[in-house]
Amino acid sequence: METMPHILIVDDDREIRDLLAKFLERQRLRVTTARDGKDARRAFANGHYQLIVLDLMLPGESGLDLARWFRSEANIPIIMLTAMAEDTDRIIGLELGADDYVTKPFNPRELLARIRAVLRRTGDPEDRAPDHAKSYHFSGWVLETARRRLLDPSGVEVAITGGEYDLLTALLDRPNRVLTRDMLLDLLRGRQAGPFDRAIDVAVSRLRRKLEDDGRNAQLIKTVRGGGYVLSTPVERL
């Protein structure tokens, strides 16, 4: 059991909690459930989790507030569940660092696929075997792939989410090449963008802030009007 990824599900709907717990456990995932923010904080303090599935609509403390708290405590992947159709709700969630979102009603198999995709991208830093020993050097910054660490020009580590890491590596692997939003979505999530899907724009904005790259006068990640984004700096791979 200890080798199974441990998932924390936070949802006030008991039927959904029980259904997901039984389904995911059959898929060889270890599951703990919580019904609200108080329950979730207690469970988080008493366990070690690889991913959190978090409902936005919770009684009392909202899912967005709880996401902020999780982000202040640990760099753990979060998949948000929402019955809200408004793009702004998904955008706020992504801005808080969520790695993905699923809109209710949903198929449990879709959620399972999203969970597995996020776990493949992020893994557990304590359990993950190092990948190819290399690093990216660009404009004084260093991205270490073995430890998935971003270091600023002074050598200080800057915390980034799994989604931000994947976006940055996608750009670093293709410097000075225009990547459309659809291309980036396909590289990062394996799905096409909907007409109102601003997930990539939000992710780029968050990554720019981490890289201290002013969005209005961005020098590292430039916006190509009507095209997408381009990493406009030399990249050295070591």
Task: Report what the structure shows.
- The structure is a single chain.
- With 238 residues, this protein is an alpha/beta fold.
- The chain has eight helices and 13 strands.
- 37% of the residues lie in helices and 21% in strands.
- The strands form three sheets. A five-stranded parallel β-sheet has the order 2-1-3-4-5, with helices on both faces. A five-stranded antiparallel β-sheet has the order 9-8-7-6-13, covered by helices on one side.
- A hairpin with a 4-residue loop joins strand 7 and strand 8.
- Helix 4 (87-95) runs parallel beside helix 8 and helix 6 (162-172) packs across helix 8.
- Mean pLDDT is 83; it is low at 125-133.
Secondary-structure map:
Elements lengths: L5 E5 L3 H13 L3 E5 L2 H9 L5 E5 L7 H11 L4 E5 L4 H9 L4 E4 L4 H15 L12 E4 L2 E4 L4 E3 L5 E2 L3 H11 L6 E2 H8 L10 H12 L10 E4 L3 E4 L4 E2 L1
- Please state the average pLDDT score: 83
Provide a count of the helices: 8
What separation lies between the terminal Cα atoms? Answer: 38 Å
Percentage of residues in DSSP E strands: 15-25%
How many strand segments?
A: 13
Structural class: alpha/beta
General shape: globular
What's the helix-strand series?
A: EHEHEHEHEHEEEEHEHHEEE
Major sheet: 5 strands, parallel
Low-confidence stretches: 125-133
What gyration radius follows from the Cα positions, in whole Å? 18 Å
| Strand order in the largest sheet | 2-1-3-4-5
The percent range for helix content is: 25-40%
